[in-house]
Structure formats: C-alpha cells, structure tokens
Amino acid sequence: MKHWLIVPLLLTASLACGAEFTVLRPQQSSVSFVSKQMGVPVEGSFRKFTARIAVDPAKPEAGVAHIDIDLASIDTGMTEADEEVAGKAWFDTKNHPVASFVSGSVTQSGKGRYEALGKLTIKGKTLDVKASFTLKQNADMLVIDGMFPLKRLAYGIGLGIWSDTDTVADEVQIRFHFTLATK
Amino acid sequence: MPNRYTHTAITLHWVIALLIFAAFPLGVYMHELPLSPDKLRLYSYHKWIGVTIFLLAVLRVAWRGTHRPPALPEAMPRWERIAADTVHYLLYALILAIPLSGWLMSSAKGVQTVWFGVLPLPDLLAKDKALGDLLKEVHEVLNFLMLGLVLAHIGAALKHHFINHDGILARMIPFLGRKT
Q1: Nearest CB to A167: which of B37, B111, B113?
Q2: Residue B47: phi, psi to the nearest 5?
Q3: ipTM
Q4: Interhelix angle for B37-66 vs B78-108, to 10°?
Q5: Strand partners for B114
Q6: Most B CBs within 10 Å: which of A167, A168, A170, as the mutation test of the B interface?
C-alpha cells in the first residue's frame, strides 16, 4: 500500500531537484577489500552485489544507500581461498549468504568528502560502521568512491585456527566504487 | 695459481647451498598443504629465504665475474671440463632465475613479496591468474632442473674426491686440502 505513496513522492523529489542518481552501472562499479596476510596487503573483490542508492549531488546529506553483497561471489585470486572463506569458520555462506550495508546519516567532512554512518550486517551480526567517500560528477554519471575499515573477528569471520591475527590481520579495508546514472 | 676458491666465494657457496636445502623441501612440502595459517606462514618464510638467496646469488655471480676460480687439474679430460663448466654456469643462472620466477609468480598471483615482513619488493607484474599459474609451472620446472644439476654437482665432487683423489673438492672445502 505504502508504495503507492512513495513512488509519486520520489518522482516529485527527483523532478524538483532534477539530478538524483539512482541507477547503478554494474560494469563501472566494484566492491573490493584489502586484508593483510603476514603483513602483506592482499586485494580481493566481490563479483556480485546489488546497490540501491539515491544521491542528489546538490544535497548528498539526504542520500540513501542499501548494498547487498553476495558473499559466495568472493574473488580472493586463489580458488583454494575462495572455497575456504565460504566455510563455517569464515562467512558460512550456506547460512548467511548476504552481507548488507544500510546507510544512516550522511555528513560532509570536507570539500567533496563525506561520511556515512551505517549498519553493516555479516553472519547475522549487525555493527555500526563509518564509511568515508568522495563524490565526483562527470557528465551524466556520479561516481562514489570510498572505504571503511572493519574488524573481521567482531563479526566472527575467520574463527578457530584463523583467529590468529599475526597471519591474517583483524582489520580489513572495504573499498567501494559505484557509478550511478540518473536513469 | 691458487688451488682453492677465495674465502668470499667459499662462504657464499655454502650459505647459498644451505638456504637452498631449506627452501627446496619447504617449497615441495608447503604447496601440498591445505590452506591454513601455517601454510601462509611457510609461504612467507619460503619467499624470505628465496629473496635472501637471490641477493647472495647476485653477490656470488658478481664475485665470480671478477675473481678467477682455481684452475682444474691438468689431467682432467676435456669433456669433464666442459661438463663442469656447463653445470656451474647453469647453477649460477638458476640461483638467480629461480628466486626471480618465484617473485614474479607472487606478483602475478596478487601477493606482494615483503622481505622478512619488512621490506616490500616492487611488484614487477600486475595480478593475472593465468600468468601466475604459468609462472608456478616455470618455478617448478626450474627447481627440478636445479635438483638434477645439484645431484650431478655433488656426485661429481664426491667422485673427484673419493675416486680421482685430485683435490678438487678441497677447492671448496679448505680443510680437506691439508691432508694431501
């Protein structure tokens, strides 16, 4: 029922501002991460994710984002590791296939720089995260580039033998790059 | 004519030999292990040893290039001289090429090599899975080639010492020379 109200409201809003970016261009978007193994930064990414984002560059503070990541689509660069992290000790993708980020407040932290507070849910656990990002508008595209750190053990990612943080560090950097169009 | 290698050459020879005797079995063992923190640790140790071998090998080859090795015995047949030189040159090439192939493989596989966890080596290649797999093959083939050459090298040294009694082994192990 509510949808009947929201859709015209959104339409009016976007007509009024004229520049709300809502359509993700998956080919020019990515969600990747950097973990430290034996002190060495190693990059990986997630092949599948959905991002429902609505940002008006004129007032980014009103922007909203809901990002779902298909954890089984992880690409660590090593097949053996891809299989390992799907297991119970890591993501347990059978029971928790999706990680999701839901934005809360967005504040400006500098020229073209913003911070989004949000809730990140992984493996059934929801914690607050603070993501910093930049907005760049080129022609008809809006590019959001940012990152946030997370502590993997706080979500129970990499338990048992893997909880030793000397080999795989607790802190993992999540990086996101979203390209949005208006339609 | 000196009858043995310089102290520098002898030291480098034996230190490199010891490190290879550690890194080679470690490499064979670790790559069969299921993924675990131990495996990651062993890979790092293997890489650190490899980088060390590479640096010592550069010194060794530079030293060899500027210091003439002791002459081989007059009595040694021509084919043996050629064989000895060939094996020596191939070993010099391999102690440089093997660590290099490992380093490139690491880069292609997207895991930078950081010597002793402190000094990052530049990634000479971008991440590329197919290239990484190819370099792994190269690393493996070169290693088994080296295994064959090292066995021939040791076999020849023992043959010269125990059968020919020509003092060749003493060129690399000075205390053996005192007896004769």
Answers
A1: B37
A2: -65, -40
A3: 0.78
A4: 140
A5: B120
A6: A167
